[in-house]
Amino acid sequence: METKIYKEGDVTTVKFIGRLDTPAAQEVTKEIESVMDAASGTVIMDCSEMTYISSSGLRIFLSLRKAAATKGGEIIVKSISNDIRQVFMMTGFLNLFQIQD
Predict the structure, then answer these.
(1) What does the domain layout of the chain look like in residue ranges?
(2) Strand pairing class (2-8; 11-20)
(3) pLDDT of 14-71, one tens digit each?
(4) Strand partners, 78
(5) What pLDDT, on the 0 to 100 scale, is given for residue 10?
(6) DSSP tag of 16
(7) In this structure, which CATH number among 1.25.40.10, 3.30.930.10, 3.30.750.24, 3.40.50.720 belongs to the domain 2-100?
(8) Which residue of 7, 50, 74, 98 has the fewest CB atoms within a 10 Å radius of its CB?
């Protein structure tokens, strides 16, 4: 799993590349601490190259959502695959996040 973080103004983009499984989630959590601290703007979670998400990965999304909510920010989940969309649908995440294709 690779995570790339881009910041432009008050918009932060987090691009997930590969499998966001349990071992990867531990690394990603450390990498996105700065994003959680600065979640007062817009955070775009680019999932165009994410191939899998586990429950640990979903927990990261919830943590970012909570951080943004307390700071007045917004989370946009972008470009999820059909497989990940199914996981979001089964877990109710489609209702929690603004999804863009």
Answers:
(1) 2-100
(2) antiparallel
(3) 999 999 999 999 999 999 988 888 788 899 999 999 999 999 999 999 999 999 999 9
(4) 46, 100
(5) 87
(6) E
(7) 3.30.750.24
(8) 98
Collapsed DSSP state (helix, strand, coil) of residue 1 = coil
Return d(Cα 70, Cα 82) in angstroms, integer: 30
CB 71 within 8 A of CB 51: no
> Residue 36 has what pLDDT?
86
- The backbone torsions φ and ψ at residue 53, rounded to the nearest 5 degrees and listed phi first, read -140, 130
H/E element, 18: strand 11-20
- Which sign, positive or negative, has the C-alpha torsion 67, 69, 73, 76? positive
This prediction's pTM: 0.90
- Per-residue pLDDT, 17: 97
- pLDDT class of 89 with cuts at 50, 70, 90: very high
